[in-house]
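Researcher: For the record, we're logging two predictions in this thread. I'll number them. Prediction 1 follows.
Model: Prediction 1, sequence and structure:
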Amino acid sequence: MIIWVLYDIVKDRSRTKAAKCCQQAGLYRVQFSCFLGTLTPNQKDTLRLQLEDLIDEETDKVYLFPMSRGELQQTDLLGQAFDKKLVTDEIRALFF
């Protein structure tokens, strides 16, 4: 599944760890606190648990939004946007 991860985390250390968790899961950094990529349901659950352990539920916000490939293809990208092919694994498939 394609998933968006967006967060607003107050503490620098927790925010840095959240970014590392997202990157280690194979997500692409779209903006400073926004990641996008393809995960299996188990990978999504693992990432959710990791992020849940990092945040302060009183002050922080984390959103995990699933998205279909069709919805991603319909997304309008303006300005210096990311390459949709990176998210849908089209580029990686060329190197196997």
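Researcher: Logged. Prediction 2.
Model: Prediction 2, sequence and structure:
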Amino acid sequence: MKVEDFDYNLPEELIAQTPLEKRDSSRLLVLDKNTGNIEHKIFTDIIDYLEKGDTLVLNDTRVLPARLIGVKEETGAVIEVLLLKNINNDNWECLVKPARRIKVGAIVSFGNGKLKAECIKVADEGIRYFRFIYEGIFLEILEKLGTMPLPPYIHKKLEDQSRYQTVYAKEIGSAAAPTAGLHFTKELLKRIEDKGVNIAYITLHVGLGTFRPVSVEKVEEHEMHSEFYQMHKDVAELLTKTKKNGHRIIAVGTTSTRTLEAIMNEYGEFKECSGWTKIFIYPGYKFKAIDCLITNFHLPKSTLVMLVSALAGRDNILNAYRIAVAKKYRFFSFGDAMFIK
């Protein structure tokens, strides 16, 4: 299977640069994965497609203000550091630009020395491991000095940092937002619950894979980076009950999907667990956990286009994307949504 098979033409002006004023006012393309039929709605209409007894699964990860701009102490060179993964205590895996300037022992200073990072290990693809040096509480310092790590295709400054968090974000640890969840408001979630739909939260901390394009020619040769996930006992029991009663599990976002499928692949059931997953879902994969998916429109040739193609069929997805382009839907993180039913 070729990566090129998941390409499509996207005019740059359709890449959403800012979020809409109202989260739930984005457009919603509804795709029937069995027939390929398409409907055009507004996101608040999602409630019409959810049924009593269904379970909506959301990823409650919270994005770290993980992008830091500092200077190399020895030379004064400007260095950008993106925190990706907490290894232990104050040691972090980071993505660095320009990485060639940072060798073991180099120290980067942020906020006039309020925070310092000493490089303790060098890895490939711009990855460096740092030991952070500071006084006080790390997350509080990060809130003051860091900014949201917006994807590289967003060029406008985000005026309100909270718009790159879901309204239910709780567990700190992501390098990027689970963007399908950005469309939900607390009011819409309440209406969904009032309809008799269950709402469950799992956690997957979005990591390096979000920032890495697929660089191989054959899909099967691509390797995902590992990401931490967690499911609590009450959620596992609810999901098991949902399946047993013949109702649907509806994942909000590809991160929720990957978490649920990873757990089913590992254990053959939903259970209280946590761990690391490198699950890569592409056409040919047999879904064991989810029935439907709420997602955004994804980058050409990305692992996320491959995932939605595995669920709905490549031809259905590429046709839906062609129609979305023709109808000028907004794409990517701050863009419009798709419901695969």
